[in-house]
Design brief:
The chain is mainly alpha-helical and 81 residues long. It has three helices and no strands. The longest helix is centred in the C-terminal third of the chain and has 32 residues, at 49-80.
């Protein structure tokens, strides 16, 4: 059985992606805070192989979100130039 915290984290990352795309700063901050709490809780846990697979997917989603955030910051930086 997959821990509900892992499933919640995946869901939060999807919501974070939507907030990043929409430029919803307050929402981004809320999801980042929630994400940090979940990661902190999960940090020292041992995972089943099934959970490790989900963790790899979560890492991929988080990297995608990071790229979206970086692209947004680069856009703002260019707009100010």
């Amino acid at each position: 059985m997959i821990r509900k915290e892992l499933l919640e984290l995946k869901e939060i990352l999807e919501k974070e992606k939507d907030a990043l795309i929409n430029g919803a700063i307050e929402e981004i901050l809320r999801w980042a805070s929630y994400k940090a709490r979940l990661v902190s809780y999960l940090r020292d846990q041992e995972f089943t192989p099934e959970e490790e697979e989900l963790l790899r997917e979560i890492i991929h989603i988080n990297e995608r979100n990071k790229k979206i955030a970086e692209a947004g910051l680069n856009f703002v930086e260019e707009a100010y130039r």
